[in-house]
Design goal:
- The protein has helices spanning 2-28, 35-49, 64-92, 99-107, 109-113; strands at 54-58, 118-122.
- It is mainly α.
- Helix 1 (2-28) packs antiparallel against helix 2 and helix 3 runs antiparallel to helix 4 (99-107).
- The chain is globular.
Length: 130
């Protein structure tokens, strides 16, 4: 079932979200200071490409640098991304078939707000990364 949902997601919104996150990640990686943010954008992009069957967990040992980076990300980009995911999720929930896709879009909101210090893992083993 998750493969079918991932394929529908890929066609309707996942590919475009992926391209947006990859473009942002490439722009962020131009400067040395932006590399951690670019890596986070790539991580979110991979998750946005294929979200069903995967989940986000906190990375062990992510301390103060992740917190400071998340505050910067939240102020500069996170709330815009979250707003985009909310609008897209509501639009997808208009149809019955789109409800699982809208829920997946809502699932992307926390990681788009605070991406540093997070890992994307398989839903079958969410505690394996800890």
């Amino acid at each position: 079932m998750k493969t079918i949902l991932n394929l529908i997601w890929l066609v309707l919104s996942g590919f475009w979200l992926f391209l947006g996150y990859v473009a942002a990640g490439l722009l962020l990686c131009v400067t040395i200071i932006g590399i951690p943010f670019g890596v986070a954008a790539f991580r979110i992009g991979g998750y946005a490409l294929w979200p069903f069957g995967r989940t986000v967990v906190d990375r062990r040992g992510a301390g103060a640098p992740s917190f400071v980076g998340n505050v910067l990300w939240l102020v500069l980009a996170g709330w815009w991304l979250a707003l985009g995911h909310i609008v897209t999720g509501v639009a997808l929930c208009v149809t019955i078939i789109g409800i699982p896709l809208g829920i997946a879009n809502f699932k992307l909101i926390p990681v788009s707000l605070l991406p540093l210090g997070k890992d994307v893992v398989s839903s079958d083993q969410p505690f394996a990364a800890r």
